[in-house]
Amino acid sequence: MAISTMDMDTGLPSLPDNMLFSTEEAIEKNLEIVQRWPFKNNDDNNLIRGVFSLRQITVCTPQLIQKTAQLAEEYNTMVQTHANEGHYEIYHALDHHGMRPANYLASLDFLNSNVIAAHSVLLSDEEVDLYAKHQVGVAHCPSPNFSSLGMTKLLQMKKLGIKIGIGTDGANRGSLDLFEAMKLSGIAQSLHYGTPYLDSNIVNPFELVTMATLGGARVCGLDEEIGSLETGKRADLLILNPGLNALPIDDPYFAIVNSLRGSDVNDVIINGQMVMRNSTILNVDENEIAQKVSVRAPQLRQTILDNIN
């Protein structure tokens, strides 16, 4: 759980007034989340973790960045930020700080093993080395990244032991389906790194499934609790019901990545509790949520437009 905070309006991107905080307000908003849902706790039923969050360097002052890093360490929690996800961000860092984004964050003592760096597409080789040095985790979001930015330096990151998890970046550039994200990442990696050199061994399905499960847990600092089926970890399981399009299944990992979708999930168990059975979520009304979204989305969109205009 996090709230993305900003305390500086540079127009990159343009912000409505109600999304902009003072530095003190931004820190307080983050603290409210972290204190309400402590990252480290012994409650077996507590599935929510509070973390700090900064939008990105173009809209955050160095004071906010440094203070957030200090508090994240003090509260023993994570801090999430968008990093190297747009050309404007690179130009901003070079124009205002004389260095690229990761170098700038390193100069503020921000980079650390508790940092979740979303996207991280436009990294120089030196910046990739900085990620490795400071054990930064990367949230790799194939759909928005490949459609607008290009190829993340995933092979280089993997060779350096950088933590990588697969994400979706919400539904703004696609769907929330991690099965689709795995498949898209595999295709893009093979196309970029393998096909031109007739190399078919760039990434295998097992690696992609690992990135989407244990890899994501490592990036989030939760790999001792979740991400794999091991004694002492939470019982989080998906039970799949493959359709005819996925049969026959010789390699389960190949099928998961290349043949199956989120719609093939039949049952879901979270922390030992059944939350979906026979493709029906048990603890919420999906139709009610869909109706509320259809009403609220246009209202929120208009509110944002009104604030910008």
Compact overview of the structure:
Helices cover 42% and strands 12% of the residues.
- Main beta sheet strand tally, sense and closure: 5 strands, parallel
Strand order of the largest sheet: 1-2-3-4-5
- Alpha-beta classification: alpha/beta
Report the average pLDDT across residues. Answer: 93
Query: What Rg, in angstroms, do the CA atoms define?
Result: 20 Å
Oligomer: single chain
The portion of residues forming beta strands comes to 5-15%
Unreliable spans are none
Q: Please, how many helices?
A: 11
How much helix, percentage-wise, in residues? Answer: 40-55%
What is the name of the CATH class of the largest domain?
A: Alpha Beta
CATH architecture of the largest domain: Alpha-Beta Barrel
CATH superfamily of the largest domain: Metal-dependent hydrolases
Q: How many strand elements?
A: 9
Distance between the termini: 30 Å
Question: How would you characterize this protein structure?
Answer:
The chain is α/β, with parallel strands linked by helices. It has two domains: 17-228, Metal-dependent hydrolases (TIM Barrel, Alpha-Beta Barrel); 235-309, Urease, subunit C, domain 1, CATH 2.30.40.10. 42% of the residues lie in helices and 12% in strands. It is built from eleven helices and nine strands. The strands form two sheets. Strands 1-2-3-4-5 form a five-stranded parallel β-sheet. Strand 3 (115-119), helix 5 (125-134) and strand 4 form a beta-alpha-beta unit. Helix 9 packs across helix 10. The model has no long low-confidence stretch (mean pLDDT 93).
